[in-house]
Amino acid sequence: MKTIPDEFLSSAAQVLGDTELGLSGRNIIEFFIEYANNKQVTIPHGEYPFKPNKKDALLANLKVFDAEDQYNIIKELCKHPKLNDPTPQKIATLKAQLADRFGEAFGYTNTKVLNVELVEDTLTWLTNHKRSLKLYRLALAQLGQETFDRNCLDNVRLALEFLLKEILENNKSIEGQKELIGGYIKKNGGSKYFMNMFRTLLNYYTDYQNNLIKHGDEAVEIEFIVELTATFMKALARLHAKSKGTK
Question: Could you tell me if 90 and 23 are in contact, meaning their C-beta atoms sit under 8 angstroms apart?
């Protein structure tokens, strides 16, 4: 398996833990606690405040994970909300270097997903929507495995459905959300044209799922549906964040 050199990990830690432009010590520890817990990995620095400086603590925590996890950790930290507006140039450079050097080995470029940036941005926007995030990650893992094509499409639909339920605060199916979503978009500053386009696309999306996938027919547009679902969820998560004043 390909590894990420210590020199790159050290450089990433220096950038992400930069005193002025990087993440705070608390940001770093909170992220690692959740990630390590999900992976059932013990990290050397899981409490704040910690004795070493934050760059050293970040690097030490990184080193206990395997290369794929190191890739995902750096990628997700690069997209941390604190760094997004505006993104410091050093962070943008680190993100580009990570994708260029290790994306083929550890990213989604080895799947059928064509728009990698869209998918990765969507995963970032779903950070605060755990059920949808979990299902969409599962769908991505199933993508490209013929025996799981149906599962993949079922899971992207469920990811979108859970997101709509959470944002609109009800327990309706996607079909039951079509009228409500228009009002939500309008309320949060979306144009009437975007509102109508979103509802129209959502209507076609549910027709596709109900008439093809639920009946067990073979679908050949799997990557398109995965990316379309990402587009829906990214737009919804951004609107929700805006409505809550978190973005």
Answer: no
Question: Which pLDDT does position 110 carry in this prediction?
Answer: 44
Alpha-carbon gap, residue 71 to 52, rounded angstroms = 23
Q: Are 148 and 179 in contact (CB under 8 A)?
A: no
Q: Please, are residues 205 and 188 in contact by the beta-carbon 8 Å criterion?
A: no
- C-alpha 4/C-alpha 67 separation (Å) is 6
Model pLDDT for residues 84-103, shown as the tens digit of each residue: 656 677 887 887 788 767 76
Question: Are residues 45 and 30 in contact, defined by beta-carbon separation less than 8 angstroms?
Answer: no
> Which pTM value belongs to this model?
0.59
Residue type, 242: K
Domain ranges of the chain: 6-106, 116-244
Contact 106, 71 (CB under 8 A): yes
